[in-house]
Amino acid sequence: xxxxxxxxxxxxxxxxxxxxxxxxxxxxxxxxxxxxxxxxxxxxxxxxxxxxxxxxxxxxxxxxxxxxxxxxxxxxxxxxxxxxxxxxxxxxxxxxxxxxxxxxxxxxxxxxxxxxxxxxxxxxxxxxxxxxxxxxxxxxxxxxxxxxxxxxxxxxxxxxxxxxxxxxxxxxxxxxxxxxxxxxxxxxxxxxxxxxxxxxxxxxxxxxxxxxxxxxxxxxxxxxxxxxxxxxxxxxxxxxxxxxxxxxxxxxxxxxxxxxxxxxxxxxxxxxxxxxxxxxxxxxxxxxxxxxxxxxxxxxxxxxxxxxxxxxxxxxxxxxxxxxxxxxxxxxxxxxxxxxxxxxxxxxxxxxxxxxxxxxxxxxxxxxxxxxxxxxxxxxxxxxxxxxxxxxxxxxxxxxxxxxxxxxxxxxxxxxxxxxxxxxxxxxxxxxxxxxxxxxxxxxxxxxxxxxxxxxxxxxxxxxxxxxxxxxxxxxxxxxxxxxxxxxxxxxxxxxxxxxxxxxxxxxxxxxxxxxxxxxxxxxxxxxxxxxxxxxxxxxxxxxxxxxxxxxxxxxxxx
Length: 559
Prior knowledge:
Blueprint: H1 2-11, H2 16-27, E1 63-66, E2 69-72, H3 87-95, H4 106-119, H5 130-146, H6 153-168, H7 176-192, H8 196-216, H9 228-247, H10 254-274, H11 295-306, E3 317-322, E4 327-332, E5 335-340, E6 359-364, E7 367-370, H12 382-388, E8 396-398, E9 406-407, E10 411-412, E11 418-425, E12 431-437, E13 448-455, E14 460-468, E15 472-480, E16 486-490, E17 493-497, E18 503-509, E19 514-522, E20 530-542, E21 545-553
Antiparallel strand pairs: 1-2, 3-4, 4-5, 5-6, 6-7, 8-15, 9-10, 11-12, 12-13, 13-14, 14-21, 15-20, 16-17, 17-18, 18-21, 19-20
């Protein structure tokens, strides 16, 4: 019965089209047929300007490194199934990002393309899933346009068949970034080939891209999955589409390309506001370094494609209220905090959502001090469960329960919903934030978590958590320290020590609470796991109940 209720609380958020697509996907016994063609025609005048590539250098022509896991294959004997590797690793093998790896020989790339065609029959395996097809179509076309003299008819026939397959297997059951990727793949294939089918692919892909502009990008420019990594990926997708559309003779309507540029400008501004002093993204909601291109490269690409100019960074204190996406940013030179105060994702697909409501990341003197735990993998297991859990984030756990009812690898049943988020910059240079969510209202007494945060403008942040409702409860407030730092506890305060031995900050309890230290995990990249120190403030009793602490920057003699 509990399992059935869990399914119900998950499925009830899906759109009817998703439910229908899920049913059809499961009852369909035969895959859609793939056309058998002797020759295909290419659309004249198709060009692509310089583009971003994201590939780690290989050790040899037939070795691959994805998710910080290396695997080498004998020449011409790539195991495309590689069942011993995680599914996301296998996906990457089929994406073909490594076609742009300058350390891999052109001859090897040619052999790998032909080997994929020979060893991956239509409709079978990871390589024929719509998402992998979508990415591979774009990568092959980029490669083919750059090396048109090396083209083989067998490559073109395979690419055409993949696009035809994709058209019949669009991910209506998933939607979100997968659906957008399908649109990009169809648009690229439709622009590359000539003929009635190709025209249809181009129109279908373009329609998906235009529809998803308004669906997936919010008024403040943020992507609706609330993951800075997926935000970066989706912005890059639209830049690729603009690059192809405006470099080719088969031009798209100017008012529609201008709309894409307008929304992408807002999204690039959003990304710039979110970037830490290290010029990288926060790690909320399945975000990791090394998957999307770094923001600096995305900004340069946007300048090339659409003339985007980076906004001038304000001098001194600046506050960004990005409440449609659910982020509040406060920066003051090398100090910066990003507060996550929004929904965990779109209701019908929160697959990348974590229990991080009212969590935050904090940098001092340009270095990340208090961090989000990031993401290790997309496999069922302890790392995935930990990364999505409430205790992996800098927020409050009540009675040992999760804010949101996460389960499986990507599932969420009941979700924490933000009830209020407010930020105020005062004339004295201080900043105040308040956020409230109902993630624990399902517990006895219907407790509500309120968080007040204030910054004095000089290097001191105060965090006050209040639990309102009824009954007796236990609060635990977690603080995750970047693994580069050590911590030393002295009564009610903790010093955060730099590798040099100097103290960067002091974290001190304000009011009665128990303090304990735990070992946690920091996953800055997929497949990369580092131990870190976790500080936990706890208290129990009749609510209203409160916990408070201060993070105080220790200034050096030169400051």
